[in-house]
Design goal:
Distance between the termini: 51 Å
Strand order of the largest sheet: 1-2-3
Shape: globular
Helix content: 25-40%
Order of helices and strands: HHHEEEHH
Largest sheet: 3 strands, antiparallel
Structural class: mainly alpha
Radius of gyration: 16 Å
Strand content: under 5%
């Protein structure tokens, strides 16, 4: 019973630090953080919708190679961030668990590194859903 109580308390603590963004709120935040310009923000909002449904606390996987994807942008732990059991590359220099909170500054920095190397093609959510006109993702946002 004590173990169940501890698990529930930890789960609530994690949920308290997680966030689900609205699409317009996210668009403004990504511009504010310098991840993108107004011209490209709809691509990022589309990407995030299809990767994490705007949720910061999502952990996806396991992938075919045993890796996991973390946070709002579903950043992969084989290449970009580290966990204690898997630190293959860690090109963003960040602990993956930091990608699960409601502070997306570090997430945006890492996403920008990934984008600068691979463009949007680094994300299957974008490849499969966001090529072409993405303006509807920021429609009504005043951006």
């Amino acid at each position: 019973m004590l173990k169940l109580a501890v698990v529930l308390v930890l789960g609530l603590a994690c949920a308290a630090h997680a966030k689900t963004f609205g699409r317009c709120e996210l668009a403004r935040k990504l511009i504010e953080l310098g991840l993108t310009s107004r011209n490209q923000v709809s691509d990022w909002v589309c990407l995030v919708e299809h990767e994490s449904s705007y949720r910061t606390h999502v952990k996806g996987g396991p992938n075919w190679n045993g890796s996991y994807d973390w946070g709002l942008f579903q950043i992969n732990d084989y290449y970009w961030c580290h966990v204690s059991t898997n630190a293959a590359h860690n090109d963003c220099g960040i602990n993956c668990s930091n990608l699960l909170d409601n502070n997306i500054e570090d997430d945006a920095r890492c996403a920008k590194i990934i984008y600068n190397r691979h463009g949007f093609n680094a994300w299957y959510g974008w490849i499969n859903n966001c090529q072409g006109d993405t303006s509807s993702y920021i429609s009504g946002c005043g951006i």
